[in-house]
Amino acid sequence: MGKLGFVGTQKLEHPIIDVASYSEDYIEVKEDVGAQSLAPFKDSGKPVWINICGVHDTTLIAEVAEIFDLHPAVIDKITNTGTRASYEDFDDYLVVALKMLKINGQRHEVEAEHVLFVLHGEVLLTFQENDQDPFDPIRERMHQENNRIRKGRADYLMFSLLRAILNDYRFIIEQIGEKIEALEDVILDRPSGDILERIGDYKLEINYILKFVRPAREAIMQLCKSDSEFVHPEFSERLMNNVLELAWIASDSSENYRMILNDDMNIYHTNVASRLNEMFRILTVFSVIFVPLTFIAGIYGMNFEYIPELGYHNAYFILLGVMVLVALAMVIYFKRKGWL
């Protein structure tokens, strides 16, 4: 047995096991069954989806692992919710570990949920932290007659579930992307500390997503390139290619938005610097205008006993006029030079 220590936060009070056994002609769903009832499905020869929610229950995980002869390393990956996305091919089954992403409705933040797939012949085991997943549309489709999932094997179901996860990746990235794109006009028109804070928040979200999207893309690539006997390309190839394409789209989109945010940060700093330079230029010009005026005022403010001009009747008004003319001449000069 592997390490049966749970690593993570318990997100479900009691574990839940649901089983869906199906074929092209029928489907049978059993909800909230016990681990001991899973043994007959191991060698049934028909596609079976066993969904286990609540990986915090190490006793339950140990029972399931014993029934399906799971390697200790796989048990570790199930109970450690911090496990990086990966793909492994064992003799009797293959394992894909990923993260499901969702937006927390209260905090409006992206959250990750651990999910692990074990394709054991025609049995697909999925291990989740809780019972919140993007698989409901697939469950509905499985109840429809003439559906490709019902006609396919367990590997087709696995790729369908993977596609649902990756579609959520794309949806979340697009949502954040719309907010990022809306920042561009605001950055140019009204650069402020609030905008800088929003850019920083979006960068954190994109980096958080990339932390899961990149390994997921690598895991999907390894899965699609594998020659495992449990993957049947003749039926799943189109869906397999679609899943791989979604993985690349999610990864590329995240990288692109990260680059956009870096550019936005540079534009923000450049715009702020440009506004400061403009302000300092205008202040400098007006400071230069006042230099000769200050010089004139300084001369006639000296405390000499005799300054001839002080005796003139209109000396004060003449001096003011001279100062105004000097200021106007400098303003005209600066305008012609394009400094104002």
Structure notes:
- The chain is of the alpha+beta class and 340 residues long.
- The chain has 2 domains: 16-270, CorA soluble domain-like (Beta Polymerase, domain 2, 2-Layer Sandwich); 271-337, Methane Monooxygenase Hydroxylase, Chain G, domain 1, CATH 1.20.58.
- Helix content is 55%, strand content 14%.
- The chain is built from 8 helices and 7 strands.
- A 7-stranded mixed beta sheet has the order 2-1-3-7-6-5-4, sandwiched between helices.
- β1 and β2 form a beta hairpin.
- The mean pLDDT is 89.
Task: Supply the number of helical segments.
Answer: 8
The CATH level-2 architecture of the largest domain is identified as 2-Layer Sandwich
What are the secondary-structure elements, in order, as H or E? EEEHHEEEEHHHHHH
Task: Give a quick account of the main beta sheet: strands, pairing sense, barrel closure.
Answer: 7 strands, mixed
Features:
seven-stranded mixed beta sheet, 340 residues, Beta Polymerase, domain 2, 8 helices, Methane Monooxygenase Hydroxylase, Chain G, domain 1
Topology of helices and strands:
Layout (H helix, E strand, L loop, with lengths): L15 E7 L4 E4 L17 E6 L4 H10 L4 H8 L6 E4 L4 E10 L6 E11 L2 E6 L7 H7 L5 H4 L2 H36 L3 H33 L7 H67 L15 H23 L3
Parallel strand pairs: 3-7
Antiparallel strand pairs: 1-2, 1-3, 4-5, 5-6, 6-7
Helix pairs in contact: 5-6, 5-7, 6-7, 7-8
Summarize the structure.
The chain is of the alpha+beta class and 340 residues long. The chain has 2 domains: 16-270, Beta Polymerase, domain 2, CATH 3.30.460; 271-337, Methane Monooxygenase Hydroxylase, Chain G, domain 1 (Up-down Bundle).
